[in-house]
Amino acid sequence: MRKPYYRRKEWIIAMLSACLPAAIIGIILYVLGTQQIEKEAQKAHQNQVSYAIERINENLNHLELIMAQWSFNLNLGSSFSELDVYENFKSTRSIYQALTWIKSSDPLIGEVTLYLDKQQMLINENTGIHVISSTDELEVYRTLASYQRDVYWTNQLSANSEMAPFSLIVRIPGGLVQTEAALIVEINAKKLNALISELDADGTGATVLLQQDGGIISLGQDSIARPTDLDLTLMRLVDSGGGTEQSSSIQTWNSEAYSVSVGQMKRIGHLWTIASATPLDQMTKPVQRLSRIIMLTGCLGIFLALMLSWYSYQRMYNPINRLIQQLKPGRSGGGLDEFDYIADEWKHLSRESQILQARIDQHLPSLRENFLLQLMQGNLSLLSESELAERVEQLGWEADDRVYAVLVLQIHGIYRSEGKFSPGDEPLVSFAAMNIVQELIKNKGIDGDTVNFHDLTLGVLVRQPADMSEEHSRTDLFHLAEELAHTLNSLLKVEVTVSVGGRTEELRKLAHMFDDTRNALAYRKHDEAQQILDALDIIPGGQDAIAYPFEEEAAILKALRSGNEAELVELLDHFFLMLKTGLDTELGVRQALMQLCGNIHNTIMLSGYNPLQLNDGLDMWEQLTAIREPEAIVSWIKQYIVAPYIVRLHSTQDMQLKRLVENVLSTIHTSYAHDISLEYCADVHGTYAKKLSLGFKQVTGQTFIDYLTQYRLTKAKQLLVETDEKINDIAIRVGYQPPYFNRLFKKYEGMTPGQYREKAEIHEL
């Protein structure tokens, strides 16, 4: 079949596109880019010097700060002028400890010496006590101790070659008090040089740190006693006025261009200058080399492209043909505009995707309403707070930093609605009211949703920011309630009562809060067109409130549904203890226990079990009425209601769990060679991973991954002994990549697969 013309044309375009851009880019980079790169390199060098100055400043500032703190913390209980270092051993030992701590407090500190003015001596942790006998030496130290500043730098003490020329002096005590002592902190030259030498890590340039008078503090990698020619040239540049507070320039030395950056740092009483010179050739050489390589590659590429582009284009065109076959089997790409065909198919798939998304969007409101209905009716009490929050986020609601408030609307008087409605129109009224409420909430920009209970009652869940105050929240809720009542009354000509509930951060408490809010509707007044009720004022009931532990009862019913017998017994005992604490009379405790017993009975029936069959037709209320002691009632509930139910529930659950695990084992045995996981098996068998994991361990005594690993290794050992297949092929057959299979096999069997096969062959012989 004749090849289409557009394919040859595209081959030529591909060939030119592969060669010409590389050559053009190489020329542009080589001709025009070098100068710009030099400027950028110079700018980067200046930024590097500025950063180094800032970092060195931070280290020296930290040193000055901690030494100032030590000058106040070095307190021996008496003044240094009264200290006898030979007699007062305790104070002398404290001085040695303090000097050790000071030395270890900063890595820049090389040596710390305490000068005592009255005693005319020096104390150092390494050299011990040194009495100053020389008058000239004593005069130097007294001059340092009488300086006007409490903390300052000096270059008068630089005898030690391992220390930097500058030392930090801290007068003790400072201020206007006559100085009794001074701390002399010598800087470790190696540490300081390491900070400076980072500006010239490869050693091709030079870096200097100079005093204000031009004296050398550090030359980085070079010794200050043996500066190089480049070091001396850089110092002359700084000394001649080239070193301002911050400057950058290009200098030429020995026919080589250098980027020179100079900066200054202010120390206490001194101004230090740092300068760095880096060869520009080192910065631009990689780019120049790359430009030449690109030009050469472009020239050679033209020749190579003539031979390879056609072959490459054919190979690139094969995936298009395969894609066409996937979209429509049996259709050939020859002579067709494949890209137009793929575009048409893509549009078709996009339309189908949009249709599916539209269907999801269409059903999302009903899914949300159903979730809210189940949540407010307490049908989701078995879910944890985190699981409820996950469901909320899946439905597109914001769950973080939110509190939830509930409003309940009750519609009355539809038969007095001026003939607008008639008997049997209750669903229509509820539907119309819900649409009006939803539209009003949407127009006001309120984050909320509505639930229709189809009995002329609507529930409104409002989500508010967690940082909103209680007063602000209640004000907004009452304004919303008034507007809802007024709008429904005006449009539908019906009587409307709105009960405003409290607010909570926990989704699990919404069902209880909704019940309280709905129960408050019983306190409405007759023949009022619009009423707003505050459930928080109505529900407590003043002094007649009952001390019944509702939350503990909810926990008991939750444990009953889940079949957790140990937790259930513990909760029943705690419930009884709270009854005895909160109720004064035995009659009150008995009534509360009867209430609990009825709710437990109702929960068992809702779970699908007949209490009469569980208790062999035992008349529960007759038995309970005959029991006089409250403790005996609790025991009777445990023995005749809870225990039979738990036994039956566990029996049913065990059968279901065993059947589930058997199905999972069958999946493992048939699909072990594939990439299967606990989550995959849970999805296949209609459960969730956590339940399957616990159930698998309970039934088999092993975790899912341990069982799968052992089964795969058993199959692998069979293949190693019974076949001559390669070990890599066996690894793939049992579901592992060869390197991981070898490590796993050795971990469990203590030998490699090859050693296992050899051992098996020896046994056969």
TrEMBL record:
- The molecule here is called AraC family transcriptional regulator
Alphabetic keyword roster: DNA-binding, Membrane, Transcription, Transcription regulation, Transmembrane, Transmembrane helix
Keyword Transcription in record: yes
Q: Which domain of life does this protein belong to?
A: Bacteria
One Pfam family recorded for the sequence: GGDEF_2
Q: Where is the HTH araC/xylS-type domain?
A: 662-759
SUPFAM superfamilies under this entry? Answer: Homeodomain-like
Instruction: Provide the species name.
Output: Paenibacillus chondroitinus
InterPro entries in alphabetical order: CdaR_GGDEF, Homeodomain-like_sf, HTH_AraC, HTH_AraC-typ_CS
